[in-house]
Amino acid sequence: MASFETGKNVVIGENVEFGENIVIGHNVIIYDGVKIGDNVLIQDNVVIGKQPSRAKNSILPEVKKLPPTVIGSGVTIGTSSIIYANSEIGDDVFIADLATIRERVTVGNKTIVGRGVAIENDCQVGSFCKLETNSYITAYSSLEDYVFIAPYVVTTNDNYMARSKERLKHFKGVTVKKGGRIGANATILPGKTIYEDGAVAAGSLVSKDVQSEELVVGHPAKKVREVPEDQLLRNQ
Fold it and tell me: Per the confidence metrics, is the pTM higher than 0.85?
């Protein structure tokens, strides 16, 4: 038999759609029109479907009201996480405590979004990815399937560091192709691509593209060798 459980101080907007077997913790806010699949766990203090706000001096264009968020089946959303409007979360995604998923973001099936992870606006994250604690995915980035992002990885999208209008024509996030992996505390500069099964060692600074199946290390990161055969995605 289907069940629906809610804690105290839960606010549910108009025209919200729920599947079967839903558990909602305390102090949760779900905005108008959100769609939630079956077997979803929403823990305390979660916000789903929040419309973005814009600073007066922001370079981003003003956005009208965005469409509602869609949450798939089998999803867990951890305590104090925020999922903005016009995001789409696939089936069996695990979102840990304190994560932020901004507007116009897609997250594929069975991906793990770790504690404190921030995925900025207009990003695509594939299926079977792992984004670990406090990693930062900058706006306009694309992560394909089976990507691994270790703790405290930083990605960037602005080579001009907020100076001059020239930067407005060159905003570009990072691209990580299928099976790409980035080690802890690495920094990826704007517009760089890590190709299929490319690997970035912990603490590295990626200032140029990482080619398929190569391992890069250092400041700036340089190729040291090929990724071992037993570590390639096709051999798992």
Answer: yes
* DSSP β-ladder status, 222-226 and 214-217: antiparallel
> What does the pLDDT read at residue 146?
98
Q: Tell whether the model's pLDDT for residue 60 goes beyond 80.
A: no
Look over the chain and give the mean of its residue pLDDT values, rounded to a whole number: 94
Q: Please answer whether residues 197 and 215 qualify as being in contact, where contact means their C-beta atoms are separated by less than 8 angstroms.
A: no
First-to-last C-alpha distance (Å) of the chain: 39
CA–CA dist 98, 74 (Å, integer): 19
State which CATH number among 3.40.190.10, 1.10.443.10, 3.30.470.10, 2.160.10.10 fits the domain covering 4-53+62-160+167-235.
2.160.10.10
Spatial distance between the Cα atoms of 77 and 44, rounded to a whole number of angstroms? 9
Indicate if the pLDDT at residue 195 is higher than 80: yes
* Section 129-139 average pLDDT: 98
What residue ranges do the domains of the chain occupy? 4-53+62-160+167-235
Asked if the bond preceding 228 is cis, omega within 30° of 0, the reply is no
